[in-house]
Design goal:
Blueprint: H1 4-7, H2 26-36, H3 63-70, H4 87-90, H5 109-119, E1 132-138, E2 141-144, E3 150-152, E4 154-159, E5 164-166, E6 172-175, E7 181-183, E8 188-191, E9 195-203, E10 206-214, H6 232-244, H7 254-266, H8 272-280, H9 286-295, H10 298-312, H11 333-346, H12 351-359, H13 370-381, H14 387-390, H15 397-400, H16 407-419, H17 438-445, E11 451-452, H18 460-473, H19 481-493, E12 504-505, E13 526-528, E14 534-536, H20 541-550, H21 557-570, H22 590-602, H23 607-615, E15 643-644, H24 647-658, H25 661-668, H26 691-698, H27 718-726, H28 728-735, H29 741-749, H30 762-792, H31 795-818, H32 822-832, H33 852-866, H34 873-885, H35 889-901, H36 904-907, E16 908-909
Parallel strand pairs: 2-10
Antiparallel strand pairs: 1-4, 3-8, 4-5, 6-9, 7-8, 9-10, 11-12, 13-14, 15-16
Helix pairs in contact: 2-5, 6-22, 7-9, 8-33, 10-11, 12-20, 16-17, 21-22, 21-23, 27-28, 29-35, 30-31, 31-32, 33-34, 33-35, 34-35
Amino acid sequence: MLPIYERFASKIGEITVPPTDETPDFQRHVSPLLGRLGCNGRACHGSFQGQGGFQLSLFGYDFKADHAALMDEESPRIDLEDKSESMLLTYPSDADAHGGGQRFKPGSWEYWVLRSWVEAGADFSPGKVQKLERLEVQPSTIDFQHDGQAAQLKVIAHWEDGTNEDVTCLCRFHTNDSAITQIDESGIVTSEDVGDTHVVVSYDKAVVPVQTLRAVSSRVGDSYPAIAASTEVDRLVIAKLRKLGIVPSDLCTDAEFLRRVSLDMTGTLPTASEVQAFLDDSAADKRQRKVAELLERPTYAARWTTFFCDMTGNNDDQLNNVLPNVQGSQSKPDSQWYHWIFDRVERNVPYDEMVAGIVTASSRLPGESYRDYCDSMSEICRDDNGDMYAERPGLVHYWARRNFQSAEDRAIGFAYSFLGVRIQCAQCHKHPFDQWSKDDFDNFEKLFANVQTRANSMTPEGKKVSKELIEELGVDSKLRNNQLRREFGKHIANGKTVPFPELVVGQPRQRGSKNRGRGKASAAPKARLLGGDWVDMTGDPRELLMQWLRSPDNPYFAKAIVNRVWAQYFSVGIINPVDDINLANAPSNGPLLDYLADGLRDNNFDLKWLHREIVLSDTYQRSWQPNATNESDKHNFSRALLRRLPAETSYDALRQALVDDTYANRSQQLDAPRAHLIAGSSTRKLASGNDTLYALNIFGRNVRESNCDCDRSEEPSLLQTVFVLNDDAVLSWIEDPKASWVRQIADKFDWPKPTGKGRASAAKQKQLEQLLGRLKQQHDAYITRLNTAQKRGNEKIVAQIQKGRKQQLAKVRQAAKRNGFLPQVNKWLAANVESKPSPSEPTQSPTASATPTEAQWVVKQAYLRTLNRLPSENERDIATHFILDEDNPTAGVVGLMWSLVNTKEFILNH
């Protein structure tokens, strides 16, 4: 069959004699032609309000509605009485009359397609929508060699009835990167620059991407160097690079690998001793052993728990009415959520099992009565550790969020979290870059409509026992909402059991025919899996959802998590953005994504298998330093991309680098405050001056407010720079006289302790001034009282005053020592008080000099703990002289540490 533009071709201007007696089909020809002409686009009649009183469905996928709009009696675009004067023909062909300009010329093939359909009666049967079996695009891949080279696409539609047709002239085309490849409305693809991208073909419900490639260098074919592929990941990556003439960078150094994998996998800097030991290790398998070690650390569990809390939406603002308000308890819903996931990550529970615990979560254990359930939940609310909730098989809190109560929100959130798909567009219209229509969304949404998790959700048994519990507690039955939760919280704190809401799966409303006979059963309500089968809604539909996720035929579940984890290690996904898997957004390396997704399934969804497969590849271990062929590569993984550390990792790395070794070692065991241990995402505490939350906020921590990975910002900002340069929190970590690494060094070499000069200790200095001011007031008052008693000759009172003064000074010294002010206080007392400090509290300052050997050792340790490498000879000499040239070597170390954490090398992962 000839293409339709040939079948309906006529002499331009001929509008009296039709070129053929064929009647075009509304679905196959008329509707896609209107789309190609732009009639149903966003800027024209496809907008939400239409144009000129005429509205079409966006991109023309609601055939029934579009046909009804064309035939509308109040504003008809088709005149069956005078067909040749139909507005569908006259307006788009008249540049002056049509606000959108001339879309086709009178007598053109487009004109005759529309007119022939109108002349035949403009027919369409809504009940006979045809199914497009597949859309074939030739060629499926285009290899270009030079600028301006062109290739013509040919698009063939294969229909369910066995017919096929060349529909190239009825398709819509766009390019994913116009700088590399252009495509015009007739399907001619033109090369603009080197690189790879996709052009996208849309027709009916089908969306097909076509990859275009143009080598960036002459090193292709036989000229491509022989590069060893250590793993299947490497083989698949190199196969793509070979087509593009991209030579990958060399492997990174041992120091770079240790830093990179430690930050990526555990969100934690390696310690100085760990770096030194790794560099000293000459074994060939040391990288494999280090990865195995990191996967067993609690910091691995904490870092990836934060990742899964982001993905599943653990937001304390949306959980504040889920549990009773127990004053002083740390057992909050967001904390319980965090511990539930942490437990699964730490035990390496298979990913599909962890997701099943979320998707099919139930409040009660099998066979558990409502009263027993309330007993358990009351104990959980008294458990500050969060371990008891982690023992529950299901994460019910996922379903209880305030912004997750409507079926629409649940469908969108579920698709985002577990499919990596954005389906919100399909709420109103057909997805512009995927197959999803409004009907697809509506039928998928039904799966979530019957899950109830509101504050009063209970089974009939639960309601009965709840009433009994309230009566037993003597709670005022008139209390509601927050007042009731506060009252329940008081009883929980006193060891009592209170009622709790529970997740309830209701039965869907059954719909039967209005004319069905008496006694005839209603039709069982059905819903539809996204792109899958129709399912019966009797029972808990979430079980069917989980079966579908686990199915080997599911095109999203395994790929979504593989793609997300990959992006955590490379800063870009195989599909990017990682939360927007759609037909038009094709993977940069499809075989690689398929291999990892299939491997994850074959390994029973073992996430540690996935981590090992990625980080033990040469692809992950490439250097960040580019060569002439890969300096522009951003998505083919030929080198490591420089990337800013995530907010939590940035904050933890700063503290770990600047505080003493005791903290650093405790941090490795999660026995010290860590940003990766913060459960929720609320910024409500920022107003209280919380340094941690302020820092996380400016570094772009995930706010978990919407179903989008854009809730986390990876962009650098001036505030981030200023924070590291000049914020009191960072400067105090450097100079903390009690817990900084600088203080540790001062103690080791008997140098003066850091006292906090300049801005780093503005608050401390003010605190010291206040202390000395109070000390002077106390001393003046003491002298006055003592003189008065001596003049009166009352020796007993004099003795009491002197004794009280000694006790007072002892307390002052004790407080000063706690705050790092003892040398200053002793100095003041020595100068202003007749009684000298006790021999146990020396006032002499430690030595203020450093030897070259000491300074070099300090420089080496400073580099190991911040940049996780040894300094170069030049760096060592400059930093050593900097310390030696200072009158106070401690001040030199302060300056060195400040300089190191303010380098790009520290704040970026490389």
